[in-house]
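Technical annex B. To support the medicinal chemistry partners, we prepared a structural model of the target in complex with arginine, based solely on the information shown next.
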Amino acid sequence: MTSVNTEKLSSARFAEATDAFVEEFTSSVNFDCRMAQQDIQGSLAHAAMLCKIGILSDQELSDIQCGLQQISTEIERGEFVWSVKQEDVHMNIEARLTELIGIAGKKLHTGRSRNDQVATDIRLYLRQAIGTILDQLQRLQLALLNLAEREADTIMPGFTHLQVAQPVTFGHHLMAWFEMLCRDKERLQDCSKRINVMPLGAAALAGTSYPIDRYMTAELLGFSRPSNNSLDSVSDRDFAIEFTAAGSLIMLHLSRFSEELVLWTSAQFNFIEIPDAFCTGSSIMPQKKNPDVPELVRGKSGRVAGHLMSLLMLMKSQPLAYNKDNQEDKEPLFDTVDTLINSLRAFADMMPNIKPKRANMYQAAKRGFATATDLADYLVRKGMAFRDAHEVVGQAVRLGLDTDRDLSELSLPELQAFSGTINVDVFDTLKLEGSVASRKHIGGTAPETVRQAITTARAQL
Ligand code: ARG
């Protein structure tokens, strides 16, 4: 019997039809249809190569090109009919191509398997997604730079243990966020190097007996080179795990920014205002304005970390080469991409609209004895050992606490009672402005240093 059942994949080998539920259960078209354009791109390169080595005629190549072009348009217009019967994006497109152009459509899969095809599609997809993510990261970085520049002189409390520690500038704090994003970009760029290696040509697992030209397809698809080992090529998903790990760190950073924004908008801190466009109200409490965007991003960071775990567990103990398990890589990966792009976009849109409440930040720094370390350093400069200075300042803070005053509000005689070395110049040290201005080494919080850091960062962006 030579009749080909076009309803079902590999049907000649099967004596009975697939169970309807199993068909649904094993299909991936509902989610992998997202890689349709990458699949077409891969097929166009493969077909051009097959033609060059004489497996397809010029006419067949041209038919395949026209057919794929039409399919691409049908998909873009939402007119393409996806079928679970055809299992996945690859078979759906191939079946439609054969419907459109006949026998040439059936030749396209020569020297190729869905195993190398899907690995190629994911890499093409991720390459593009990383471009979009990097664009959004860049937008957010630019927004942070602009805000940091405006707030280079703004004094706020710096915290350790969420207790007021030492005064810093708001610009410096924002530049700390900026630095985290620099590393995030580097990580994405680094994993791109390994993503951009082409599996196509590995076929099912062992390569193919046709004289394929993998350098040609790699070049046509913009890959840096063909992969080295066919077994590894169809089974490797390290690249997806690396990407998701880099994505988890981006989301982790956004969750930290979010947490601070949420704290800062609370009445207890009252450091910033997030514009109404990025907040919502409460259905019951009329006075409420909730920082929804940062809260939601903070929440979403969990799902990406979860996807990283899914992918790690997906690959754990898998024998070579391709296993159907790998079909499970796509949903976590796609959701990671969506979550990253949307969260970064929300942040990049929101940051330029953040309104700092400078007076409140200043007062908070003043209330927290933030210049206590500066007083100790002052005493050290006057010849006291640091441990003794630490003790003396502790006593001064005690007096401030008991009389509800900041160190800068104690009188000179009161301070001199703690150490005779103290003069009137101590008040320059005890002022918040003096404290931040003195930290002007590289990496410090002084306004002039922050401005320098911004200039350097701008040049590098
Ligand atoms: N839908 C499959 C996946 O996502 C494509 C590869 C299928 N290969 C196979 N031998 N069943 O991994």
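Notes passed to the chemistry partners:
The first strand starts at residue 155 and ends at 160.
The pocket of arginine is lined by residues 28, 32, 88, 114-115, 118, 322, 324, 326-327 (CB under 6 Å).
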